[in-house]
Write a structure and sequence with these properties.
alpha/beta, Rossmann fold, 7-stranded mixed sheet, 11 helices, binds S-adenosylmethionine
């Protein structure tokens, strides 16, 4: 990016979406983001791999949903539309596929809109994923997506920002109720349930190292993830570690990486 392109994107403040883009090998990050990302990686060396496992799950879940005939996606807590995000997978298979990206972080939304400016089938909306009625009432969501037809709702790496005090089970139920039957919800979630004591300490240090960029991250165990899907049948193989959800060869499987055990993934069907 040139200096003029980044001028109003708050270049001095590290940004969650651009830090994430850096982990994924993207081009939309700045020195302040890279400095903070490197600091986070120094306390949790598996951080980059964790981001890649998460994005790998997203890509396989989008491909699975396309196989089920779903061609429209609502991506909640999307980060930047780069580095193999939802529209890149969906539109590569079906150029008519529609994607609405939702993020509540204004810098990510401004940059995302710029990236998508020539793509009428993929738009970026500024909204809070914790307010499902507002998301579904948003004019751009209603314009781009046909809400009477099944949707692929992507919730990868976003429930980690929603604490139990915010009723995540009720939030999932609201999305389930708003979606047409046949829709699917794909979700990934940070966990330390399977981590050894040293890695558990690293995960806590990682959350601390994010301070100032985000307020808090919440880990969940397998039962906590299963509870989010209450009332929704899970697609096989159910809740798994992220790299184990329908793996295929083109995703970044690094056996032995400690990050392998740091995220759960699942896809549920709305009946
Ligand atoms: C870790 S990134 C995930 C990126 C992408 N979904 C993926 O899985 O690869 C999380 C993104 O969620 C956004 N986010 C967190 N809480 C949110 C909320 N309540 N509403 C909308 N976006 C949110 C953050 O701003 C950030 O860009």
């Amino acid at each position: 990016m040139s200096a003029s392109e980044t001028a109003h994107l708050d270049p001095e403040t590290p940004n969650i979406a651009r830090i994430y883009d850096y982990y994924l090998g993207g081009a939309f990050n700045l020195p302040a983001d890279r400095e903070r990302a490197d600091r986070i990686k120094s306390v949790l060396p598996g951080m980059e791999m964790l981001a890649r496992f998460n994005r790998g799950f997203l890509r396989r879940a989008v491909a699975y949903l396309l196989d089920q005939g779903i061609t429209q996606f609502l991506d909640l807590g999307s980060g930047l539309p780069t580095a193999g995000n939802t529209h890149e997978v969906a539109q590569a298979r079906d150029p008519r596929a529609k994607v609405v990206y939702v993020d509540y972080e204004p810098v990510a939304v401004a940059l995302g809109r710029r990236i998508l400016r020539a793509n009428p089938g993929a738009v970026m909306v500024e909204a809070d994923a914790r307010r499902p009625e507002e998301v579904f009432a948003h004019p751009r969501v209603r314009e781009v997506l046909d809400l009477s037809r099944p949707l692929g709702v992507m919730m990868t790496g976003v429930m980690v920002f929603v604490g139990d005090h915010e009723d995540p089970v009720g939030l999932m139920k609201s999305y389930r109720d708003l979606c047409a039957p046949g829709s699917h919800i794909a979700l990934s979630q940070l966990t330390d349930e399977c981590a050894d004591p040293e890695t558990k300490v690293q995960v806590r240090a990682m959350v601390e190292a994010y301070r100032g960029v985000i307020e808090q991250l919440y880990v969940r165990d397998r039962a906590g993830v299963e509870a989010l899907f209450e009332g929704m049948p899970l697609v096989e193989p159910g809740v798994t570690l992220m790299p184990d959800w329908r793996p295929h060869a083109d995703t970044d499987i690094a056996t032995g990486s400690p990050a392998h055990g740091l995220g759960y993934a699942a896809v549920g069907r709305v009946d």
